[in-house]
């Protein structure tokens, strides 16, 4: 990242949940620091040089990217809920209910990350795989192992992905071979990972540790309380957990914590519900919990694929209600629990889930639009991660996390063919609904090209 860059062509981004902006003949200038210094609209190609001539540096010092017709720039995708160790088990264990799936598939798999070499191999493939699919920011659950979690953080930094990386806390209701030995060791390992991540990225510019109690079922009171203390002492650290995901999980949580009426009160009691909390799923939300989540300003990671594929339910989170109340919400691939690790697929499944909600609510909660699911995948996700000042769209001053999408991929793809009369918006819709990673030609994080 040494020279300034300039991009000319179609630029598409979100300004708000239903505000999709399509800019034709757009011009984006990126400084050597990876920040967007100018976004100009309607600059025809022939006036492009003239527009730049008044600026510094001189035009020959820019790296120039012309986008051809059918190509366009969009912001990088934000994956607000992702289990990195499950990269190697994707697709397995379908038709099982969630707690059985954890026991039979997930825990045996995650236990393998005690071996740092195994962790390095799988995590390397995982980070490459998500970058290839345009995920420029990810909030990762690691395994319970401190060493493997540090390796994941190292790899994200090295490969250029913006990431929250969390050592998973779990000291009960998991097999002996895969759980934290004691509350103290779990907290000590957490502190150890926090210190490591601060050492490799002192300003937390790309990587932050995220406090990651797997969910209340796997954490004793003392562990939740200890994590709450760490959260209080470190107001820069995000927090993530699973929240009201499935009936089987919710009723087991109730039997473990009989003094709490609901999960909002439970996590709040332990100091784990804050503006920095990313609550995965939130499929079942009472009026009271919606109000608590709104008042505390927690973020919601909507994971429609796993919600509708992990057996034991057909969960469709009330996303329309979240948007109506201005509760921050983004998308998660939750990739171990479903059939896809693609945010594009998560957008499509979010449409399916919202159709289900429309039926369930007898027409009250209208289906989401393409503009809305695109918002969830970009600016919405950035808001969930409290990163909206830095990424999520192409506002001047933000960092340039972006994808160049091409409707004419080098390898033959299956995206709907582009026809002569197609507008940029039509081509965009064809990509969102039928494109895949073959159409993601280049990926940038803070101006650095990160896809091979
Ligand atoms: Zn999950």
Automatic annotation (TrEMBL):
<dbReference type="GO" id="GO:0005829">
    <property type="term" value="C:cytosol"/>
</dbReference>
<comment type="function">
    <text>Catalyzes the hydrolytic deamination of guanine, producing xanthine and ammonia.</text>
</comment>
<dbReference type="GO" id="GO:0008270">
    <property type="term" value="F:zinc ion binding"/>
</dbReference>
<dbReference type="GO" id="GO:0006147">
    <property type="term" value="P:guanine catabolic process"/>
</dbReference>
<keyword id="KW-0378">Hydrolase</keyword>
<dbReference type="Pfam" id="PF01979">
    <property type="entry name" value="Amidohydro_1"/>
</dbReference>
<dbReference type="InterPro" id="IPR011059">
    <property type="entry name" value="Metal-dep_hydrolase_composite"/>
</dbReference>
<keyword id="KW-0862">Zinc</keyword>
<keyword id="KW-0479">Metal-binding</keyword>
<comment type="pathway">
    <text>Purine metabolism; guanine degradation; xanthine from guanine: step 1/1.</text>
</comment>
<dbReference type="InterPro" id="IPR032466">
    <property type="entry name" value="Metal_Hydrolase"/>
</dbReference>
<dbReference type="InterPro" id="IPR014311">
    <property type="entry name" value="Guanine_deaminase"/>
</dbReference>
<dbReference type="GO" id="GO:0008892">
    <property type="term" value="F:guanine deaminase activity"/>
</dbReference>
<comment type="similarity">
    <text>Belongs to the metallo-dependent hydrolases superfamily. ATZ/TRZ family.</text>
</comment>
<feature type="domain" description="Amidohydrolase-related">
    <location>
        <begin position="72"/>
        <end position="450"/>
    </location>
</feature>
<protein>
    <recommendedName>
        <fullName>Guanine deaminase</fullName>
        <ecNumber>3.5.4.3</ecNumber>
    </recommendedName>
</protein>
<dbReference type="InterPro" id="IPR051607">
    <property type="entry name" value="Metallo-dep_hydrolases"/>
</dbReference>
<dbReference type="InterPro" id="IPR006680">
    <property type="entry name" value="Amidohydro-rel"/>
</dbReference>
């Amino acid at each position: 990242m040494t020279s300034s860059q300039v991009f000319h062509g179609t630029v598409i981004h979100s300004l708000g949940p239903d505000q999709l902006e399509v800019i034709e003949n757009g011009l984006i200038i990126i400084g050597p620091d990876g920040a967007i210094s100018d976004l100009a609209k309607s600059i025809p190609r022939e006036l492009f040089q003239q527009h730049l001539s008044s600026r510094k540096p001189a035009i020959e010092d820019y790296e120039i990217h012309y986008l051809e017709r059918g190509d366009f720039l969009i912001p990088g995708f934000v994956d607000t809920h992702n289990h990195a160790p499950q990269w190697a088990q994707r697709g397995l264990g379908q038709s099982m209910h969630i707690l059985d799936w954890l026991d039979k598939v997930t825990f045996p798999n995650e236990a393998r990350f005690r071996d740092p070499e195994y962790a390095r191999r799988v995590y390397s493939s995982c980070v490459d795989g998500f970058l290839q699919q345009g995920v420029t920011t990810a909030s990762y659950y690691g395994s319970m192992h401190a060493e493997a979690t540090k390796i994941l953080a190292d790899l994200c930094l090295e490969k250029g992905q913006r990431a929250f990386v969390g050592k998973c806390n779990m000291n009960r209701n998991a097999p002996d071979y895969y759980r934290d030995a004691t509350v103290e060791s779990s907290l000590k390992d957490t502190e150890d990972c926090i210190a490591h991540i601060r050492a490799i990225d002192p300003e937390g510019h790309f990587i932050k540790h995220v406090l990651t109690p797997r969910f209340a079922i796997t954490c004793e009171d003392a562990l939740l309380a200890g994590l709450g203390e760490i959260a209080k002492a470190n107001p820069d650290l995000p927090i993530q957990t699973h929240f009201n995901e499935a009936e089987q999980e919710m009723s087991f949580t109730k039997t473990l914590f009989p003094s709490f009426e609901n999960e909002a009160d439970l996590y709040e009691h332990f100091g784990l519900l804050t503006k920095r909390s990313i609550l995965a799923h939130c499929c079942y939300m009472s009026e009271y919990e919606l109000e608590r989540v709104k008042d505390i300003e927690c973020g919601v990671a909507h994971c429609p694929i796993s919600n509708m594929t992990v057996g034991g339910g057909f969960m469709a989170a009330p996303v329309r209600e979240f948007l109506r109340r201005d509760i921050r919400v983004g998308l998660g691939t939750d990739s171990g629990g479903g059939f896809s690790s693609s945010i594009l697929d998560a957008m499509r499944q979010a449409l399916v889930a919202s159709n289900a909600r429309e039926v369930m609510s007898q027409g009250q909660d209208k289906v989401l639009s393409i503009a809305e699911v695109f918002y969830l995948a970009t600016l919405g996700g950035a808001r969930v991660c409290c990163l909206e000042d830095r990424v999520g769209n192409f506002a001047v001053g933000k960092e340039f996390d972006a994808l160049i999408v091409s409707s004419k991929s080098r390898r033959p793809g299956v995206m709907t063919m582009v026809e002569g009369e197609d507008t940029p918006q039509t081509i965009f819709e064809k990509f969102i609904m039928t494109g895949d990673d073959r159409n993601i030609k280049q990926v940038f994080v803070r101006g650095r090209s990160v896809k091979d």
